[in-house]
Amino acid sequence: MYKSLRVLVGFAVLCLAHAAQAQNIGNTPYSRYGLGEYNYNLGNVRNAGMAGVGLSAGNSFQANTSNPALLYYNSITVFDIGVAGQVKTIKNATEKQTDANANLYNLTLAVPVSKRWSSAIGLRPYTVVNYEARTTSEIENKPTAIVEQQYMGEGGLSEAYFAHGVRIADGFTIGGSASYIFGAITKEASSAVRDESLNAISNEKVVYSERIRYDNFLFRAGANYRKKVTDTYYLSAGSVYTFGTDLEAKRRSSFERRTLSDNVLDNNILPDSSEGSVNLPSSFRAGVTLDNGKNLTLGADFYTQKWSEFRNFDGDSELGNSYRVAVGAEFTPDANSIDNFFERITYRGGLYYGDSPYISKGETIKDKGVTAGFTMPLGRSSIYDLYQLNGAIGYGSRGTTDNGLIKENYFQFSVGFTVNSRWFIKRRIE
Asked: Which pick of 33, 223, 252, 315 has the fewest CB atoms within 10 Å?
């Protein structure tokens, strides 16, 4: 047991060090708006298989981080790690391209403190910025010349959190979490003039580069109530409120001269640095779940956030209000089956639909998709340890090619590993 603990702690430290430097899990032109592409799933790979559903779906053998009030149900120590990636096709009316990448999805350690209280620490992506766009235009009265413009962005914000869940009364639990949001976003905009009659300047471009580093604390409060409604089924209702906060921001910017192959000729033209803040609006999540306490769970979640109240570093509003509705389910044929391994696997599925916070050319970008997932036991379980392999896939689309807009079709995948271990057992001498 203690050897496993040392291995897990060492592995977690390595993952934390890596995740602080890299966090891309997606590639989308819409991430140029606001702080990037928002991570809707506050849970793990289990929740991803159910379209993110989990605000009221307690589980004793999975870290319940989607709602801190559910941590109470983690009565033994849980270590959970997951990676995720996606393959995305981006297209407009005339062109399309395909991109793919993967990175850390979640890292969680949940530990019971007492019979009524469990805690968890973890790391997950908060937003992701990863885009590149190019445009060309002609210069009026100069048919031999064109202007090439390029826009690029990368980086994002990470969330390190410390959460608690406490049972107040029979079936009623509350929880809260404190998160540290941190990270940096780099954006560049460049222009280059190509003119067959002016070869001397056609090999250079002017680039505006800015890097903004963000950080501050974010707080959430959650509650959940579970009650037996029939001889077989339980009904649960949960909610999470995320308080608004202002992220401190430090911006460094400058103009640069570069070759067309991005070799820097001069990187210190009109340098500037300034400090400010951006506000993250509050959000609300609610969910209901019906389960039989054994092998079947049916759930639905709702999320909404007033991104229209967001203001960027320059004080501009560039986002709209968003919402998301998701339904999901999980089923285990027979967790105690001896002869059939596939009956011990938990199967999951889900659907989601909603408005993203992105508004392009006056149209709100909608997002919809379907997911599936599983959890399978690994090796032989004992009263001391239980190992699980988690997987999830999803297919969705966002946006449209109408009115000159961009549509994204994406295939997402995630794989995770969960260890349940009893760390604190009193020795008995007979």
From this structure: 315
Which two tokens mark 199? 């070869």
* CA dist., res. 82 & res. 12, Å (int): 11
Residue 3 backbone dihedrals phi, psi, to 5 degrees: -65, -40
Helix, strand or coil for residue 327? Answer: strand
Do β-strands 142-169 and 172-195 pair in parallel, antiparallel, or remain unpaired? antiparallel
The CATH architecture assigned to 2-421 reads: Beta Barrel (2.40)
**Cα distance between residue 182 and residue 156, in whole Å:** 9
Q: What beta strand segments (E) does 93-141 contain?
A: 96-112, 117-139
Contact 44, 108 (CB under 8 A): yes
As averages over each run of 10 residues, the pLDDT of the chain (430 residues) reads: 48 46 56 91 94 93 93 93 91 84 89 94 93 79 77 93 96 97 94 70 79 97 97 96 96 87 79 92 97 95 95 90 97 89 95 94 92 91 80 94 88 94 56
Beta strands in 63-200 (DSSP E): 77-91, 96-112, 117-139, 142-169, 172-195
Length of the chain: 430
Please list the residues that pair with 130 across neighbouring strands: 154
Question: Which are the contacts of 271, defined by CB distance < 8 A and separation ≥ 6?
Answer: 252, 253, 254
Token couple for 371? 């997911």
Alpha carbon distance 165, 58 (integer Å): 12
How is the chain split into domains, by residue range?
2-421
Residues 6+ apart with CB under 8 A from 323: 302, 303, 304, 305, 354, 355
CA distances (Å), origin 65, targets 73, 223, 260, 279, 406: 11, 12, 46, 24, 33
Output the CA torsion 328→334→336→339 (10° steps): -130
With 0-12 / 13-18 / 19 or more C-beta atoms within 10 angstroms meaning exposed / middle / buried, residue 53 is buried
**Cα(52)–Cα(373) distance, integer angstroms:** 11
Q: How far apart are CA 218 and CA 180, in angstroms?
A: 6
Rounding to the nearest 10 degrees, give the CA dihedral for residues 77, 390, 349, 410.
120
Query: Is the Cβ–Cβ distance between 60 and 72 less than 8 Å?
Result: no
